[in-house]
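Below is a typical protein record.
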Amino acid sequence: MARKIIGLYHPSNSASTEVANQLFIEISENQIVFLTKNSTSKIPVAFEIFELENHSIESLDFNKDIKADSKILNNYYQETNCFYNLEEALLIPEEKFSPSAAEDFLALIYGNIINHVVKYDKPTKNGSMVNVYRIKKSIHEWVSQHFVLYKPHHIYSTILQTIFSTAQRDIHYLKIQFYSQHFIVACVINNKLHLIQTFPYKTDTDIHYHIVRIITQMGFDSSHSILEVSGNYDASLSLHSELTKLFNQIIFDNIADTDFIDPTQSNFPLHHFTPFYKLAL
């Protein structure tokens, strides 16, 4: 089954002025996220997170486990985008890309499996890399069944678009998006991407280990390094204190105060929802 752990909705006294016509979905191993937005005003209208409880997504009863408890899914949307936040993805040079080559590269890194679907994104319009990824065929069919004509994407593409749409990164820069059971790291040195990868974790010690290993392998210069964090990250915990010893500067990728759907309903910091809100940029 699935359990709704967060539900934020535009206050009723202003909802009539903000009609949501875009639906954004993010699917990971243990969560499904729904975000609606008005395409004209760009204002988020509703936001929900469902946590999967010992079930794979394709085994869920959509109407009973999700739709019955959702205030979002009873409406019609002109556009639906689904972002797969799944580990099996990698970047390959555009000149080496073909559908068969994508299959081969994924099999080389993640092993051969059957009953999967390979997709690909172009992370940046003028870039030279293609983001290829694979998802279980059963998940693809589950999404296609319940969200007809949706547009598929991978979360790495959104992260890279965010990084390279801003000022040049002529430093040692690490961007981390934290989720409940995994985090995604993007490493940029002198404006060149060196790594984007997903890491599972159970404890803060796991997180610290992976970060130390990454910056050691990448030869990070701590005096000229920046760590940017967002998502499920608590700056009051000891992990934050340990990370301040590794980076010259730690910054939070916050959403704007005005982007909170309903500030009265949430006690989360502004950086908590950034990974989800940026799906709709």
Remarks:
- The longest strand covers residues 44-52.
- Residues 204-217 form the longest helix (14 residues).
- Residues 13-17 have pLDDT under 50 and may be disordered.
- Residues 22 and 79 are 5 Å apart (CA to CA).
